[in-house]
Amino acid sequence: MIIAERLLPAVLGLASAGAAAAADPGRGAGLYEARCAACHSLDAHRVGPLHRGVVGRRAGSAPGYDYSPALAAAAFTWDAALLDAWLKDPEALVPGQRMGYSVADAGDRGDLVAFLLSVARR
Fold first, then answer.
1. pTM score, whole prediction
2. What tens digit of pLDDT does each residue of 18-36 get?
3. What is the distance between the alpha carbons of residues 121 and 75, in angstroms, rounded to a whole number?
4. What are the two backbone dihedrals, phi and then psi, of residue 79, each rounded to the nearest 5 degrees?
5. CA–CA separation, 71 vs 58, rounded Å?
6. 58 phi/psi in degrees, rounded to 5
7. Which of 10, 66, 105, 108 has its CA 20 to 30 A from that of 81?
């Protein structure tokens, strides 16, 4: 049982990474522009924090952005699975956060996550 408990997160992470790899980052770029760019930018804070390099960054930690106390206290690092969960229902992932937008369609979320995975730090 302990082995299964330790392997499950790794297997889920691989499954999420595989799903993101099968997704279309080019389509995700268009979705990002249409759905996210009103509040976010890759390289500057707006209503929401910047997104370049979000994958691998601790939640609530982009320097210079005023996060909600709930997100600032989140104890996880963004990866494909967490970004998908966030886009699906931010409030379910981090109760008390301030983002009032979600993406219901799993394919759209996958493409958005693939795009964010493709955006490297400078």
1. 0.81
2. 454 589 999 999 999 999 9
3. 21
4. -140, -175
5. 10
6. -65, 135
7. 66
